[in-house]
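Reading a protein record of the kind used here takes only a little practice. The integers have meaning only within a learned vocabulary of local backbone shapes. With that in mind, consider the following protein and its fold in token form:
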Amino acid sequence: MRHVEMVGTEKLLKNVVVFGGGFLKQVNNTMDKCIKVLDFEVTKNMTLTCHTLEALAKLGHPYSALTPFPLHPVPVPGKQTFEAVHVQTGRLYKGKFKRVSKAGFSAGKLISTGWVGISGVPYAYWVIHGSSRMIKRDFLGGSLHIRAKEIRGIWEKGIRDAITGEGIRRHSAGAGKE
């Protein structure tokens, strides 16, 4: 399971008093946007359909530990990572879930957590971490790495808007327009 956890400063506490529940609602909306981006990338990396099991066998089992030659490398400074997982049965995808916990304060700090994970699919561990027969393809952590800059940008803008009240004012202005 991969998660994003953001921690704020005590200045935020003062603004919660000023803006009330709208502040935490803005933080929750911001984390939800971040997790949607992560979920999209995870889904993309775990549902490739460009090669069937038979095609992968004809290619010499490119994800085997004996002779690895991954078909979809993602360049990372200093190394290559491999997040690609080809769909065979769809069980891995059906086990995917996302969650966002309600934002709150702990020890004077803002805490907001969201995550994308896999549940109820025992072999997911071996896909992510590899085995003696298969290279690892961490489509969860790799997806976070690929989209980290974008997610951080969404988070920073959302929190900046929450601190200044911009996001709360925009949300309030649009509330009666349904």
Notes: The mean pLDDT is 78.
